[in-house]
Specification:
- With 70 residues, the protein is mostly helical.
- The protein is 61% helix and 0% strand.
- The N and C termini lie far apart (87 Å).
Amino acid sequence: MPRITSEHWPALSHSRGHLWGDRPSVPRRAGLGRSETAWLIAGLVAVGVGYLAWSYLGPDIRRYQKLHSM
């Protein structure tokens, strides 16, 4: 397989009919990306776990605070 050297590079770019600066930009996708969706799901899980912890441990914590303040 022949090597592409720097002297052949300009000929290759012109043979394709465009220069590197003429390439169109890639459009961004609309909507949430993977990382934003992952953060949203992680936040909802954290809120759910916090709610469950408060509903199970909340009465005991309030009782302990009453006893501690006496």
